[in-house]
Structure to design on (183 residues):
């Protein structure tokens, strides 16, 4: 399953992606560990393998939908994007993304966010997707804004990063945001 954007594609992770995923995470440790709870300074290759295996199982169970972000002309792993914390009662999911340091600032995360939003809203039929961003992460805030997500507010002490509570901006995407007919 591939979804193509201007400069990137998103596709399901494959078992042989583990070394490339590990390299991308290790390249970006300082950036990722500041804002993503799964990242640790001693991140190991085995964790990449475990993540890919868990992603496959979670996909089959309908619990999460994780994608590798790859460059359109090749298969260089640029980062990851996913839908998780799925609420079937109210039909929404959390949308998260990260991009390896050497590709940051090039529109990769924005393109991948738009692609997974189409998947989540159009293919999976979610009513809304939510993006939670630490108030200390302006780069991720810009990605949410450029992807067309709407800022809904600030959630006080919503994220715990490095053992400390942080305020988070909450953005949302609904199908009208992708077509220009937002409700």
């Amino acid at each position: 399953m591939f979804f193509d954007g201007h400069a990137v594609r998103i596709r399901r992770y494959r078992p042989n992606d583990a070394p490339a995923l590990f390299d991308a995470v290790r390249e970006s440790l300082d950036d990722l560990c500041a804002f993503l709870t799964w990242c640790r300074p001693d991140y190991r290759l085995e964790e990449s393998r475990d993540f890919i295996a868990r992603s496959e199982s979670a996909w089959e169970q309908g619990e999460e939908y994780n994608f590798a972000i790859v460059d359109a002309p090749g298969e260089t792993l640029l980062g990851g994007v996913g839908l998780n914390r799925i609420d079937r009662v109210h039909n929404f999911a959390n949308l998260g993304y990260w991009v390896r340091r050497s590709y940051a600032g090039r529109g990769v995360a924005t393109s991948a966010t738009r692609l997974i939003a189409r998947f989540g809203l159009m293919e999976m039929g979610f009513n809304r997707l939510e993006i939670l961003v630490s108030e200390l992460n302006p780069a991720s805030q810009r990605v949410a804004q450029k992807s067309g997500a709407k800022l809904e507010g600030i959630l006080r002490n919503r994220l715990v990063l490095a053992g400390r509570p942080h305020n988070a901006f909450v953005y949302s995407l609904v199908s009208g945001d992708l077509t220009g007919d937002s409700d």
Remarks:
- Residues 2-179 form a domain with the Aminopeptidase fold (CATH 3.40.630.30).
- The mean pLDDT is 91.
